[in-house]
Design goal:
9 helices; 0% strand
Length: 259
Protein backbone atom coordinates (compact mmCIF):
# COMPACT_ATOMS: atom_id res chain seq x y z
CA UNK A 1 0.00 0.00 0.00
CA UNK A 2 1.39 3.35 -1.05
CA UNK A 3 2.23 5.62 1.80
CA UNK A 4 0.73 9.09 1.83
CA UNK A 5 3.26 11.84 2.16
CA UNK A 6 2.14 15.23 3.41
CA UNK A 7 3.05 18.01 1.04
CA UNK A 8 3.99 21.36 2.51
CA UNK A 9 2.44 24.26 0.62
CA UNK A 10 4.08 27.66 0.82
CA UNK A 11 2.20 29.86 3.27
CA UNK A 12 0.74 33.07 1.95
CA UNK A 13 2.53 36.05 3.38
CA UNK A 14 0.52 39.19 4.00
CA UNK A 15 1.18 42.04 1.58
CA UNK A 16 3.93 44.39 2.61
CA UNK A 17 2.66 47.62 4.10
CA UNK A 18 3.00 50.64 1.84
CA UNK A 19 5.16 53.58 2.77
CA UNK A 20 4.16 57.12 2.03
CA UNK A 21 2.74 60.33 3.42
CA UNK A 22 -0.15 60.15 5.91
CA UNK A 23 -2.20 62.88 4.22
CA UNK A 24 -1.68 65.44 1.47
CA UNK A 25 -2.39 69.16 1.64
CA UNK A 26 -4.62 70.72 2.79
CA UNK A 27 -4.01 68.44 5.75
CA UNK A 28 -6.31 70.20 8.20
CA UNK A 29 -9.26 70.29 5.80
CA UNK A 30 -8.76 66.69 4.69
CA UNK A 31 -8.60 65.41 8.24
CA UNK A 32 -11.49 67.49 9.57
CA UNK A 33 -13.90 66.66 6.74
CA UNK A 34 -12.92 62.99 6.80
CA UNK A 35 -13.45 62.68 10.54
CA UNK A 36 -16.67 64.69 10.33
CA UNK A 37 -18.16 62.38 7.70
CA UNK A 38 -16.88 59.39 9.63
CA UNK A 39 -18.81 60.66 12.64
CA UNK A 40 -21.87 61.00 10.40
CA UNK A 41 -21.35 57.42 9.29
CA UNK A 42 -21.35 56.23 12.89
CA UNK A 43 -24.60 58.09 13.51
CA UNK A 44 -26.39 56.59 10.50
CA UNK A 45 -26.03 52.80 10.74
CA UNK A 46 -29.28 52.36 8.80
CA UNK A 47 -27.51 53.63 5.66
CA UNK A 48 -24.43 51.41 5.91
CA UNK A 49 -25.68 48.64 3.65
CA UNK A 50 -26.69 50.95 0.82
CA UNK A 51 -23.62 53.18 1.10
CA UNK A 52 -21.34 50.15 1.11
CA UNK A 53 -22.86 48.85 -2.12
CA UNK A 54 -23.06 52.27 -3.78
CA UNK A 55 -19.46 53.21 -2.96
CA UNK A 56 -18.15 49.83 -4.05
CA UNK A 57 -20.03 48.85 -7.21
CA UNK A 58 -23.53 50.31 -7.56
CA UNK A 59 -22.40 53.87 -8.22
CA UNK A 60 -19.94 52.97 -11.00
CA UNK A 61 -22.48 50.57 -12.56
CA UNK A 62 -25.20 53.24 -12.63
CA UNK A 63 -22.82 55.77 -14.19
CA UNK A 64 -21.76 53.27 -16.83
CA UNK A 65 -25.40 52.48 -17.63
CA UNK A 66 -26.22 56.19 -18.03
CA UNK A 67 -23.22 56.59 -20.34
CA UNK A 68 -24.35 53.66 -22.49
CA UNK A 69 -27.92 55.00 -22.59
CA UNK A 70 -26.60 58.40 -23.72
CA UNK A 71 -24.68 56.71 -26.52
CA UNK A 72 -27.76 54.71 -27.55
CA UNK A 73 -29.92 57.84 -27.59
CA UNK A 74 -27.47 59.69 -29.82
CA UNK A 75 -27.05 56.60 -32.01
CA UNK A 76 -30.80 56.15 -32.41
CA UNK A 77 -31.25 59.82 -33.33
CA UNK A 78 -28.46 59.43 -35.91
CA UNK A 79 -26.30 62.06 -34.19
CA UNK A 80 -22.95 60.73 -35.29
CA UNK A 81 -20.98 63.67 -33.91
CA UNK A 82 -22.52 63.16 -30.47
CA UNK A 83 -21.67 59.46 -30.48
CA UNK A 84 -18.16 60.33 -31.63
CA UNK A 85 -17.72 62.66 -28.67
CA UNK A 86 -19.02 60.01 -26.30
CA UNK A 87 -16.59 57.50 -27.77
CA UNK A 88 -13.74 59.98 -27.23
CA UNK A 89 -15.01 60.48 -23.69
CA UNK A 90 -14.87 56.75 -23.05
CA UNK A 91 -11.30 56.64 -24.34
CA UNK A 92 -10.42 59.64 -22.19
CA UNK A 93 -11.90 58.00 -19.10
CA UNK A 94 -9.83 54.86 -19.62
CA UNK A 95 -6.74 57.01 -20.15
CA UNK A 96 -7.51 58.90 -16.93
CA UNK A 97 -7.73 55.64 -14.99
CA UNK A 98 -4.26 54.78 -16.28
CA UNK A 99 -2.90 58.21 -15.36
CA UNK A 100 -4.46 57.77 -11.94
CA UNK A 101 -2.08 54.91 -11.21
CA UNK A 102 0.94 57.04 -12.13
CA UNK A 103 -0.25 59.98 -10.03
CA UNK A 104 -1.03 57.71 -7.10
CA UNK A 105 2.45 56.17 -7.03
CA UNK A 106 4.00 59.63 -7.36
CA UNK A 107 1.94 61.18 -4.52
CA UNK A 108 2.16 58.10 -2.22
CA UNK A 109 -0.69 59.17 0.05
CA UNK A 110 -1.68 56.39 2.45
CA UNK A 111 -5.29 55.41 3.04
CA UNK A 112 -6.96 57.51 5.75
CA UNK A 113 -7.62 54.49 7.95
CA UNK A 114 -3.86 54.02 8.25
CA UNK A 115 -3.50 57.41 9.93
CA UNK A 116 -6.85 57.05 11.72
CA UNK A 117 -7.03 53.42 12.86
CA UNK A 118 -10.07 54.24 14.99
CA UNK A 119 -12.09 55.31 11.93
CA UNK A 120 -15.15 53.34 10.90
CA UNK A 121 -14.50 51.70 7.51
CA UNK A 122 -17.45 50.11 5.69
CA UNK A 123 -15.47 48.53 2.83
CA UNK A 124 -12.57 46.13 2.70
CA UNK A 125 -9.27 47.82 3.49
CA UNK A 126 -7.07 47.80 0.39
CA UNK A 127 -3.30 47.92 0.36
CA UNK A 128 -2.90 50.71 -2.18
CA UNK A 129 -2.59 54.48 -2.27
CA UNK A 130 -5.57 56.73 -1.71
CA UNK A 131 -4.81 59.71 -3.97
CA UNK A 132 -6.54 60.15 -6.36
CA UNK A 133 -9.74 58.07 -6.08
CA UNK A 134 -10.25 55.85 -9.12
CA UNK A 135 -14.01 55.74 -8.51
CA UNK A 136 -14.06 59.54 -8.72
CA UNK A 137 -11.96 59.45 -11.89
CA UNK A 138 -14.65 57.28 -13.45
CA UNK A 139 -17.40 59.61 -12.23
CA UNK A 140 -15.71 62.73 -13.57
CA UNK A 141 -14.76 61.17 -16.89
CA UNK A 142 -18.16 59.69 -17.77
CA UNK A 143 -20.13 62.73 -16.61
CA UNK A 144 -17.99 65.22 -18.51
CA UNK A 145 -18.18 62.98 -21.59
CA UNK A 146 -21.96 63.42 -21.66
CA UNK A 147 -21.69 67.14 -20.87
CA UNK A 148 -19.19 67.61 -23.70
CA UNK A 149 -21.44 65.79 -26.17
CA UNK A 150 -24.36 67.93 -24.98
CA UNK A 151 -22.42 71.20 -25.29
CA UNK A 152 -21.03 70.48 -28.75
CA UNK A 153 -24.37 69.04 -29.89
CA UNK A 154 -26.20 72.17 -28.79
CA UNK A 155 -23.63 74.32 -30.56
CA UNK A 156 -24.04 72.31 -33.76
CA UNK A 157 -27.79 72.83 -33.62
CA UNK A 158 -27.38 76.58 -33.18
CA UNK A 159 -25.11 76.81 -36.22
CA UNK A 160 -27.05 74.36 -38.40
CA UNK A 161 -28.92 75.99 -41.27
CA UNK A 162 -32.30 74.57 -42.13
CA UNK A 163 -33.89 71.29 -41.00
CA UNK A 164 -31.75 69.12 -38.79
CA UNK A 165 -28.53 70.29 -40.42
CA UNK A 166 -27.54 66.77 -41.43
CA UNK A 167 -27.37 63.45 -39.66
CA UNK A 168 -24.27 64.53 -37.70
CA UNK A 169 -26.22 67.25 -35.85
CA UNK A 170 -28.14 66.04 -32.77
CA UNK A 171 -31.91 66.40 -33.00
CA UNK A 172 -33.82 68.47 -30.48
CA UNK A 173 -35.08 65.25 -28.88
CA UNK A 174 -31.53 63.94 -28.53
CA UNK A 175 -30.35 67.18 -26.93
CA UNK A 176 -33.18 67.07 -24.38
CA UNK A 177 -32.42 63.45 -23.53
CA UNK A 178 -28.71 64.23 -23.13
CA UNK A 179 -29.58 67.07 -20.74
CA UNK A 180 -31.52 64.72 -18.50
CA UNK A 181 -28.81 62.07 -18.63
CA UNK A 182 -26.05 64.60 -17.97
CA UNK A 183 -27.87 65.99 -14.93
CA UNK A 184 -28.50 62.49 -13.60
CA UNK A 185 -24.87 61.49 -14.14
CA UNK A 186 -23.68 64.65 -12.40
CA UNK A 187 -25.79 63.97 -9.30
CA UNK A 188 -24.88 60.28 -9.13
CA UNK A 189 -21.20 61.01 -9.73
CA UNK A 190 -20.97 63.61 -6.98
CA UNK A 191 -22.84 61.29 -4.64
CA UNK A 192 -20.31 58.55 -5.43
CA UNK A 193 -17.53 60.95 -4.40
CA UNK A 194 -19.37 61.61 -1.15
CA UNK A 195 -19.92 57.88 -0.60
CA UNK A 196 -16.20 57.09 -0.96
CA UNK A 197 -15.44 59.44 1.94
CA UNK A 198 -18.51 58.31 3.92
CA UNK A 199 -17.40 54.67 3.90
CA UNK A 200 -13.94 55.68 5.12
CA UNK A 201 -11.92 54.81 2.02
CA UNK A 202 -10.73 58.31 1.00
CA UNK A 203 -9.99 61.81 2.12
CA UNK A 204 -12.12 64.52 0.44
CA UNK A 205 -9.06 65.73 -1.45
CA UNK A 206 -8.72 62.28 -3.03
CA UNK A 207 -12.19 62.36 -4.58
CA UNK A 208 -11.90 66.00 -5.71
CA UNK A 209 -8.58 65.29 -7.41
CA UNK A 210 -9.91 62.11 -9.00
CA UNK A 211 -13.02 63.85 -10.35
CA UNK A 212 -10.93 66.68 -11.82
CA UNK A 213 -8.40 64.25 -13.30
CA UNK A 214 -11.14 62.36 -15.11
CA UNK A 215 -12.82 65.56 -16.29
CA UNK A 216 -9.64 67.27 -17.53
CA UNK A 217 -8.41 64.16 -19.33
CA UNK A 218 -11.73 63.76 -21.16
CA UNK A 219 -11.69 67.43 -22.17
CA UNK A 220 -8.10 67.04 -23.43
CA UNK A 221 -8.98 63.96 -25.49
CA UNK A 222 -12.05 65.83 -26.73
CA UNK A 223 -9.75 68.31 -28.46
CA UNK A 224 -9.24 65.59 -31.06
CA UNK A 225 -12.88 65.93 -32.14
CA UNK A 226 -12.18 67.76 -35.46
CA UNK A 227 -10.07 64.82 -36.62
CA UNK A 228 -12.55 62.32 -35.20
CA UNK A 229 -15.47 64.06 -36.94
CA UNK A 230 -13.67 63.89 -40.28
CA UNK A 231 -12.88 60.20 -39.76
CA UNK A 232 -16.48 59.34 -38.82
CA UNK A 233 -17.89 61.38 -41.72
CA UNK A 234 -15.54 59.55 -44.08
CA UNK A 235 -16.92 56.14 -43.05
CA UNK A 236 -20.52 57.31 -42.64
CA UNK A 237 -21.72 55.49 -45.77
CA UNK A 238 -19.93 52.25 -44.84
CA UNK A 239 -20.68 49.52 -42.35
CA UNK A 240 -18.39 51.23 -39.84
CA UNK A 241 -20.67 54.24 -39.96
CA UNK A 242 -23.40 52.13 -38.37
CA UNK A 243 -21.38 52.11 -35.14
CA UNK A 244 -21.93 55.85 -34.77
CA UNK A 245 -25.50 56.29 -36.02
CA UNK A 246 -28.58 54.23 -36.74
CA UNK A 247 -28.66 53.12 -40.38
CA UNK A 248 -31.11 55.20 -42.41
CA UNK A 249 -34.36 53.53 -43.42
CA UNK A 250 -35.70 53.46 -46.96
CA UNK A 251 -38.24 56.18 -46.06
CA UNK A 252 -35.58 58.47 -44.62
CA UNK A 253 -33.49 58.02 -47.75
CA UNK A 254 -36.43 59.12 -49.88
CA UNK A 255 -37.00 62.17 -47.69
CA UNK A 256 -33.32 63.05 -47.81
CA UNK A 257 -33.32 62.76 -51.61
CA UNK A 258 -36.46 64.90 -51.99
CA UNK A 259 -35.09 67.59 -49.70
Amino acid sequence: MERLVATAFPSQTPPQALTGVPVLEPKGLNNSVYLGLNHLSRQTPWAHGFMHGYALWLGPVLLAIIFVVAYCVAWWQRSSHATTLLALGGIGTVAALGLNQLVGHAAKELRPYVSHPQALVLVAKSNDYAFPSDHSVLAGGLTVSILLALYVGSSLRLHAKGGFGGASVPTRRAVRALRVLAATSLVLGLFLCFARVYVGAHYPGDVVAGYLLGAVTVVAVGLLRPVAFLAVDAVDATVLGNLFRRPPTALSRVRSTNS
